[in-house]
Amino acid sequence: xxxxxxxxxxxxxxxxxxxxxxxxxxxxxxxxxxxxxxxxxxxxxxxxxxxxxxxxxxxxxxxxxxxxxxxxxxxxxxxxxxxxxxxxxxxxxxxxxxxxxxxxxxxxxxxxxxxxxxxxxxxxxxxxxxxxxxxxxxxxxxxxxxxxxxxxxxxxxxxxxxxxxxxxxxxxxxxxxxxxxxxxxx
Length: 186
Description:
Distance between the termini: 67 Å
Number of helices: 11
Structural class: mainly alpha
Helix content: over 70%
Number of strands: 0
């Protein structure tokens, strides 16, 4: 009889083998389906590793993207939601943007909020500039700093104003990020 630990070890080994195979042999729908299964695994460490791996894939199936959206919306582990936000930022697209924007209104973990704003900045959808700029205020310092950096990728009055306002932030790291972005070119 197989114990739970042996079954978990087998699933972890399968995920590692899958990730190694993806790097050396290419990617495909079968790999994506296996990642979907791993993203919904009962073990949070395996879910997080699968979401991290999904963020580095070159091809993304709709099923994998939807699994990551569900993970961001419902997973009870902060690190899993953080990894899902990262992966969605790499995947991009309308569904990823929608899920990330929705999460800004409901997510309470600073760790996940920082990943969400970084993902929105990585995608760079002009429609999200105001959301990203708003996250430069009223957040934990790490989230504000990440939002200031994300604003640099937008060409909008909201983003530009948020960067300039961050020069007066109470946190030195936020101020430094804004100053670095606004420094004159060499």
